[in-house]
Amino acid sequence: MKILKIFIxxxxxxxxxxxxxxxxxxxxxxxxLKNIRCLICQGQSVYDSESEFAFSIKLxxxxxxxxxxxxxxxxxxxxxxxxxxxxxxxxLNKNTYVLWLLPLLLFLFGGAIIYKKTISxxxxx
Length: 125
Fold this sequence. Notes:
- By secondary structure, the chain is mainly α.
- It contains four helices and no strands.
- The longest helix has 33 residues, at 2-34.
- It starts with a helix and ends with a helix.
């Protein structure tokens, strides 16, 4: 009877740990797919897209997760194959300086214009 209980406990613990790893993989997969741009659809992530490209990327990401690759390794694979543009949140490197610095420059330029107009209005009064 004790042996039967041990086998049941062992079987259940293995089964539940497998479910937890599948759930963890699904969360990782959806996180990655939401951060990948569909090259066919405009402005849609692969997660939301129904195109053939999105379907193939979903299969690739699923296979890479099953192979044991980490999130950054999967992104690196996709960058090498499709370029930096495929990732919604690209890394800062010499090719993406403009992507990261342009919003900051626009913000500073707009702030300078507003400041100049505010000062000139105050001087006229």
